[in-house]
Amino acid sequence: MKKNIVISVIVGALVALGISAAPAQAAERTLNLDYANWNPLSLVIKDQGWLETDLKKIDTKVNWVYSAGSAAAIQNLNANAIQIGSSAGVAAYVARANGVAIKSVAVFSQPNWAALVVAKGSKITPSQLKGKKIAAQKGTDPYFFLLQVLTAKKLDPFKDVTIVNLAHADGKAALLRGDVDVWSGLDPITSQSVKVDGSKIIYENKALNTWGIISAREDFLKSNRDITVTVLKNYQKARAWIQANPDKAAQILATSAKIDLDVAKTVLNGRTKVNVPLVPGALQSGVLAAIQPILVNEAQVRSQSDATTALSTLYDTSFAFAALKK
């Protein structure tokens, strides 16, 4: 009897203090992930609101963060400003090789988004790059695209040309002002400049682009498998939606990127292949293996050993496989 009285007193005291004896509810989670004009699937997911609906079921809010380029996405992943982000495959690979704890978990597109561009009236050709000033944003596919082009032409990127590190939009502006001779540009900015400014693409090669990849922080993946799989399911939903609604998808891109609708259609239908497998594999790793010697020679990664280890540990396909299950 005395024992029961003591328990009753304790419970009463807890109630008086506003402390419930019931189990505490789990705190609501927030997912920070990116969207980008060069990732049309992310634009569709954001526009349609599917992810918010799906994650609400598991008490998770969604916060969208804009990525102007792969470099921004990787920086935000490293800083934990986002937990899931999109980038060129090589950007994620270089980041991991240099100590950023991320894993690439899915593929969103096979793009032809990088190209060498000159201003209207320029007579420069791909064989005349030596001695030229070239704008490119470090850490992005156009930058690594440029390194591959220079290497193929036996040009030293540090001696034979001057690379000016500028964000994609700033690179275009510098080209139009005449501050640089060539711009290694990124779609949809490139295609819009071709139409509006009369810029000219002098070299492109889809094989030198390193795929559109979705990556996530390793610590996040370990404790948030449900969220990650839900995100990838939404990517698959967006992939199918774009193929079924190409005009609506182009309008979403045009609105987000502030470009002409016909340019958006060109980028989406002619320069971006979204109907690709979600699961990363030999195709993506093969492209990175081919560029690895350039990354090592140009000191883009800390060492050959780091580059080799990063490539062998970059992908975690389990989330994509789980997302494909009904």
From TrEMBL:
Domain SsuA/THI5-like: 61-249
Keywords: Signal, Transport
GO molecular function annotations of the record: ATPase-coupled transmembrane transporter activity
Signal peptide: 1-26
GO cellular component, one term: membrane
Record has Transport as a keyword: yes
A Pfam match: NMT1
Subcellular location: Periplasm
Family: Belongs to the bacterial solute-binding protein SsuA/TauA family.
Task of the protein: Part of a binding-protein-dependent transport system for aliphatic sulfonates. Putative binding protein.
Name assigned to this protein: Putative aliphatic sulfonates-binding protein
Originating organism: Candidatus Planktophila sulfonica
